[in-house]
Write a structure and sequence with these properties.
Elements lengths: L8 E5 L8 H14 L3 E6 L2 H4 L22 H8 L6 H10 L3 E6 L2 H9 L5 E3 L7 H8 L5 E4 L5 H14 L4 E6 L14 H9 L2 E6 L5 H8 L4 E5 L17 H18 L11 H5 L3 E4 L14 E4 L10 H4 L21
Helix pairs in contact: 1-4, 1-10, 6-7, 9-10
GO molecular function, one term: N-acylneuraminate-9-phosphate synthase activity
InterPro entries: AFP_Neu5c_C_sf (IPR036732), Aldolase_TIM (IPR013785), PseI-like (IPR051690), PseI/NeuA/B-like_N (IPR013132), Pseudaminic_synth_PseI (IPR020030), SAF (IPR013974), SAF_AFP_Neu5Ac (IPR006190), SAF_PseI/NeuA/NeuB (IPR057736)
Protein name: N-acetylneuraminate synthase
Length: about 350
């Protein structure tokens, strides 16, 4: 992946927020572009390719789940999936609006389908991090791969990275992720980001399921190169992902906040900068505070440390007190050694 700015790539994840409407999906694409997102992403599966139509405890979301408790996986994915015939118009609109558009495949048929649409990159979802054959298949396309590490141990991440490299991936990005919906900031563990980058020698970003933009901005300050957030038009419209999705105005805050965080990192070797020139000019120094005549003693009544700069440094005050003025000086004269005898 390449970007012309150093701020992280902001990916707007549509997921199931289309609520069953292609027009709504396209409206989300337009809103994401207006908000400044760099890419939009969808998910490529059907209920039958991602799970089985079985109603048993193993095939149900746990009863206490905050959003999808007790729903069968097949029912949930039937509602949330993006029809495959929608992919091309979604991708085409995104490209027209200057964004990259790609998807998360969940099986080999999805990869084959997306290859026909010439997607520029792929995302592997957190739960599929253990599907090493899928990771190898995606990597064999030669395109950049983004791999989310939610639910994974270090060993599982290492195995997934090895599978990607074995498949031929040369541009891999890992996303720190808490696979909880919505996720709490306390569970983000963002300190993983620089550690993962060093450990695996890859770019690292964040797939963020928390509310708001604070966690993503913090991740940017830790070196995240990609930020992925679910996006909807209005949370009040409901939908399977709406509760933890950003609205367009919030997405704009995310884009601007992450850009500011990236630019603010700067260099550890820079202290005073040219941007501070005016403040530097206004730093305090020693000035004559009342009119004085040649021969007058310098006292704390006629010389003080005041703003602006121009006079002797305030640290010299103890050395000038008790000397005499060599010439007359008016109030507001910057004190210099030439004024003193």
């Amino acid at each position: 992946m390449t970007k012309t700015v150093q701020s992280p790539m902001i990916i707007a994840e549509i997921s199931g927020n289309h609520n069953g409407s292609l027009e709504r999906a396209l409206d989300i694409v337009r809103a994401a572009a207006d908000a400044g997102a760099h890419a939009v992403k969808i998910q490529t599966y059907t209920a039958d390719t991602i799970t089985l139509n079985v109603d048993s405890p193993a095939f149900r979301v746990s009863e206490g789940h905050a959003l999808w408790g007790s729903r069968t996986l097949h029912e949930l994915y039937q509602e949330a999936h993006t029809p495959w015939e929608w992919h091309e118009p979604i991708f085409e609109l995104a490209k027209q609006l200057g964004m990259q558009a790609f998807s998360t495949p969940f099986d080999e048929t999805a990869v084959e389908f997306l290859e026909k649409l010439e997607v520029p990159m792929y995302k592997i979802a957190s739960l599929e991090i253990v599907d090493l054959p899928l990771i190898e298949q995606v990597s064999a396309t030669g395109k950049p791969v983004i791999l989310s590490v939610g639910t994974a141990t270090i060993g599982e991440v290492a195995a997934a990275v090895e599978a990607a490299r074995r498949g031929g991936c040369e541009d891999l990005t890992l996303l720190a992720c808490t696979s909880s919906y919505p996720a709490e900031p306390d569970d983000a563990n963002l300190r993983r980001i620089p550690v993962m980058a060093e450990m695996f020698g890859v770019k690292v970003g964040l797939s963020d399921h928390t509310m708001g933009v604070g966690v993503s901005i913090a991740a940017t300050a830790l070196g995240a190169t990609v930020i992925e957030k679910h996006v909807t038009l209005r949370r009040s419209d409901g939908g399977v992902d709406s509760a933890f999705s950003l609205e367009p105005a919030e997405l704009r805050l995310l884009v601007d906040g992450c850009d500011a965080a990236a630019r603010a990192l700067g260099s550890a070797h820079v202290w005073a900068t040219g941007a501070e020139a005016e403040s530097l000019r206004l730093r305090p120094s020693l000035y004559v505070t009342v009119d004085v005549a040649a021969g007058d003693l310098v006292t704390d009544a006629n010389v003080r440390s005041v703003r602006p700069a121009g006079g002797l440094p305030p640290a010299e005050l103890s050395r000038v007190i008790g000397r005499t003025f060599a010439t007359d000086a008016t109030v507001g004269t910057a004190l210099s050694w030439e004024l003193l005898s």
